[in-house]
Amino acid sequence: MVCGGFTCSKNALCSLNVVYMMVGLLLIAVAAWGKGFGLVSSIHIIGGVIAVGVFLLLIAIVGLIGAIHHHQVMLFFYMVILFIVFLFQFGVSCSCLAMNRGQQEGLLKSAWGILENNTKTDLESQLNCCGLLNVTDSTFDTDLRNCPAPCKLKRSCPTCGEKMLNHATEVLKILGGVGLFFSFSEILGVWLAVRYRNQKDPRANPSAFL
């Protein structure tokens, strides 16, 4: 049976936003857990994950309140924001799926260059590697000197770039697939909000179009 009634659209939109709220809370909890256990020392990474979680949580709250009260203004802003998020996430997901090895190396170099030293040493310790890519520049030599990885004692350390690139394609495919899945759930939310916003509330005045 097609979900076309007012109550069905309302329940579907509420359920979708409850899922978004759970995902937002999960992101915040994972970031706090990672910081608390010392898994990630970079405050920028932790702050970024928490910011995404809070943003998703706020959008879900706006959508949930708008759905419960059939609030036209809140539903409108919910639709607009969710559609913008969909466009951004869809583009990023497609880029992840289409990225080749050369582009992956460039992305890794850019990301490695802006990482803090504490974050670099954490990665080197966890991955048991030293430096990003074995190229003749001062950055690699500095990373090699500061590297705390256990493999350094054996004088035979792979570079972190090699280890990351070995799994980068698979990881990017997973990220792209998950991103596409959530992007289509977002466009579903936009469609539900548009449909629900233009429906009449049977409990209201029958002559009023809400």
Plain-language structure description:
It is found in: Membrane. The chain crosses the membrane at residues 12-33, 45-68, 75-100, 174-194. It is a multi-pass membrane protein. InterPro entries: Tetraspanin/Peripherin, Tetraspanin_animals. The structure is a single chain. This protein is mainly alpha-helical and 210 residues long. The protein has one domain. Helix 1 (6-36) packs antiparallel against helix 2, helix 3 (72-98) runs antiparallel to helix 7 (160-197) and helix 4 (101-114) crosses helix 7. The relative contact order is 0.14. The longest helix has 38 residues, at 160-197. It contains 7 helices and no strands. It has helices at residues 6-36, 43-69, 72-98, 101-114, 117-127, 138-146, 160-197. The model has no long low-confidence stretch (mean pLDDT 80).
Low-pLDDT stretches: none
Q: Give the helices and strands as they follow along the chain.
A: HHHHHHH
Proportion of beta-strand residues? under 5%
Specify the number of helices: 7
Shape: elongated
Helix content: over 70%
Roughly how many Å is the radius of gyration? 23 Å
Estimate nothing, just give the exact number of structural domains.
1
Q: Could you describe the largest sheet, including whether it forms a barrel? A: none
Rounded mean pLDDT score: 80
Multimeric state: single chain
- C-alpha termini separation: 25 Å
The tally of strands reads: 0
Label the structural class.
Answer: mainly alpha
